[in-house]
């Protein structure tokens, strides 16, 4: 496994490995902010399966954090990340500094329109998705991947990036991968380390409320979008430390609104039940994508 | 010469020609809006010189025109364009329809910040450069060129695209090419066909005023930026049909302001003298890039 920190060196290394293994060899790319967990490991395994050369990037991207967010204290552990990468058979790790990625303040922005980026996480994190699409676009230009792998925990991010790739005719194929959870159901996130023990216990209401929604859908043919949303909210509120940021049910991946009085059985398309809940200053997200009564893991 | 109208076919054709001629062969790309003239021909010749496979695109891009601009009446002549392309040894012409480029309304925008895009042509054409950077970015993803060729008549466009390429780490090298002029000095433009005979005659004040500026610089060591600008304005105003949109002298390619009282001999960097002048509803642009007393054709 090769670790490179400079853009030019990364390009050379990829080119070298491509020439060595045949120019028709496919590049699989997993962009991350590091502090890797089993969710990231599942992306790397999928990349290993589909691609010939697996590139992992680790870069805590300042331009996707708001001024009052956790950029400075975002958890970092280079050594552990490299061990996990090695274990998962990564070929090349790209770990650039902020100066390498943004030698001058960046003047170019790639943005996806408000109908995809202004609600859900975009509402409480203004500018966040512009930072994501800009850095992902830059990373795609540097790595030039055939496939890029993203976790569905950030389902809105997947929808936004798919839109960007389609609109700008990028050659990469986006591969969305299922959410990975702890044994007790908590979706894996680098931010879980922020949780105090009691917060960690109560954080189970996120996954539980999605389970509840699935049960309600399975047993009640006439339930409306509004009733479903209300039940999810009620369950989350049963945790005294939980402060709801949003609980929304939208068409997926369009992220367009569905009228609350619509019976679920009338909805033809995929929907997402998406949650963001704060425990103290830690904001957790979770979601499920459904098509009628069926859970969809691929989008 | 192959003519293709679909993105997928273009990709296949480029790939085919690359495999035939060796994968290390360089792709040169000339993006245009068609109605080709000798200015475009000079770009194609430069591409032929530097690259192995020359791709020309012809696409009148609706998203870079304002609502009251000349998108509908922009001149088109497919047959003549293809003859010129053939003559210049183009390998592949890409002529997509609007539906092929934008099957749905595009939700993704690539934009360069206001310090490069809000003055000069950006001031009278709001949103214009967003349309340019978005379509150029999309075309770059489709063609994947090693070199792309742009005329310096649109000097601000060159500066904006260079910024985009650098910020987003696109692999392409931008090759700016000198302005091509009629015998009498008028800079070539597809829009010159709009000019009535008397407007065409008076349109010479653009290039003449730039010649005048060069003479003033050569003979007057103490001339200030403000005096130079005033002389250029005065000369253009000698044409009764000319209506000045802007006459600006800026640092190039940063496009930052220079205080009018600054003597030219104090300016260390490249500067641009940029003009936009309307004759009736036809807006013409012209410019010269200088470094001290020297005319710079490469940036």
TrEMBL record, chains A, B:
<dbReference type="Pfam" id="PF02569">
    <property type="entry name" value="Pantoate_ligase"/>
</dbReference>
<feature type="active site" description="Proton donor">
    <location>
        <position position="40"/>
    </location>
</feature>
<keyword id="KW-0963">Cytoplasm</keyword>
<dbReference type="InterPro" id="IPR014729">
    <property type="entry name" value="Rossmann-like_a/b/a_fold"/>
</dbReference>
<comment type="similarity">
    <text>Belongs to the pantothenate synthetase family.</text>
</comment>
<feature type="binding site">
    <location>
        <begin position="188"/>
        <end position="191"/>
    </location>
    <ligand>
        <name>ATP</name>
    </ligand>
</feature>
<dbReference type="InterPro" id="IPR004821">
    <property type="entry name" value="Cyt_trans-like"/>
</dbReference>
<protein>
    <recommendedName>
        <fullName>Pantothenate synthetase</fullName>
        <ecNumber>6.3.2.1</ecNumber>
    </recommendedName>
</protein>
<feature type="binding site">
    <location>
        <begin position="151"/>
        <end position="154"/>
    </location>
    <ligand>
        <name>ATP</name>
    </ligand>
</feature>
<dbReference type="InterPro" id="IPR042176">
    <property type="entry name" value="Pantoate_ligase_C"/>
</dbReference>
<feature type="binding site">
    <location>
        <begin position="33"/>
        <end position="40"/>
    </location>
    <ligand>
        <name>ATP</name>
    </ligand>
</feature>
<dbReference type="InterPro" id="IPR003721">
    <property type="entry name" value="Pantoate_ligase"/>
</dbReference>
<keyword id="KW-0436">Ligase</keyword>
<comment type="subunit">
    <text>Homodimer.</text>
</comment>
<feature type="binding site">
    <location>
        <position position="64"/>
    </location>
    <ligand>
        <name>beta-alanine</name>
    </ligand>
</feature>
<feature type="binding site">
    <location>
        <position position="180"/>
    </location>
    <ligand>
        <name>ATP</name>
    </ligand>
</feature>
<feature type="binding site">
    <location>
        <position position="64"/>
    </location>
    <ligand>
        <name>(R)-pantoate</name>
    </ligand>
</feature>
<dbReference type="GO" id="GO:0004592">
    <property type="term" value="F:pantoate-beta-alanine ligase activity"/>
</dbReference>
<keyword id="KW-0566">Pantothenate biosynthesis</keyword>
<comment type="pathway">
    <text>Cofactor biosynthesis; (R)-pantothenate biosynthesis; (R)-pantothenate from (R)-pantoate and beta-alanine: step 1/1.</text>
</comment>
<keyword id="KW-0067">ATP-binding</keyword>
<comment type="function">
    <text>Catalyzes the condensation of pantoate with beta-alanine in an ATP-dependent reaction via a pantoyl-adenylate intermediate.</text>
</comment>
<feature type="binding site">
    <location>
        <position position="157"/>
    </location>
    <ligand>
        <name>(R)-pantoate</name>
    </ligand>
</feature>
<keyword id="KW-0547">Nucleotide-binding</keyword>
């Amino acid at each position: 496994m090769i670790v490179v920190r400079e853009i030019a060196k990364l390009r050379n290394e990829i080119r070298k490995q491509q020439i060595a293994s045949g120019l028709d060899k496919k590049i699989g790319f997993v962009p991350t902010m590091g502090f890797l967990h089993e969710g990231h490991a599942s992306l790397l395994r999928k990349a290993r399966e589909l691609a010939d050369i697996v590139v992992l990037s680790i870069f805590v991207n300042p331009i996707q954090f708001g001024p009052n967010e956790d950029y400075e204290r975002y958890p970092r552990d280079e050594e552990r990340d490299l061990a996990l990468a090695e274990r998962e058979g990564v070929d090349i790790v790209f770990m650039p500094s902020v100066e390498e990625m943004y030698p001058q303040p960046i003047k170019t922005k790639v943005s996806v329109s408000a109908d995809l980026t202004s609600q859900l996480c975009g509402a409480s994190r203004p500018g966040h998705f512009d930072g994501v699409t800009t850095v992902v676009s830059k990373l795609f230009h540097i790595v030039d991947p055939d496939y890029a792998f993203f976790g569905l925990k950030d389902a809105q991010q997947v929808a936004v990036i798919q839109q960007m790739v389609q609109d700008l005719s990028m050659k990469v194929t986006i591969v969305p991968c299922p959410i990975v959870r702890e044994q007790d159901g908590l979706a894996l996130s680098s931010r879980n380390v922020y949780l105090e023990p009691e917060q960690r216990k109560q954080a189970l209401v996120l996954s539980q409320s999605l389970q509840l929604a699935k049960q309600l859908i399975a047993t009640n043919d006439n339930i409306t979008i509004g009733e479903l949303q209300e039940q999810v909210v009620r369950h989350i509120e049963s945790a005294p430390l939980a402060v709801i940021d949003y609980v929304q049910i939208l068409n997926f991946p369009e992220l367009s609104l569905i009228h609350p009085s619509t019976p679920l059985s009338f909805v033809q398309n995929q929907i997402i039940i998406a949650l963001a809940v704060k425990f103290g200053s830690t904001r957790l997200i979770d979601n499920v994508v459904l098509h009628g009564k069926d859970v969809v893991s691929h989008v």
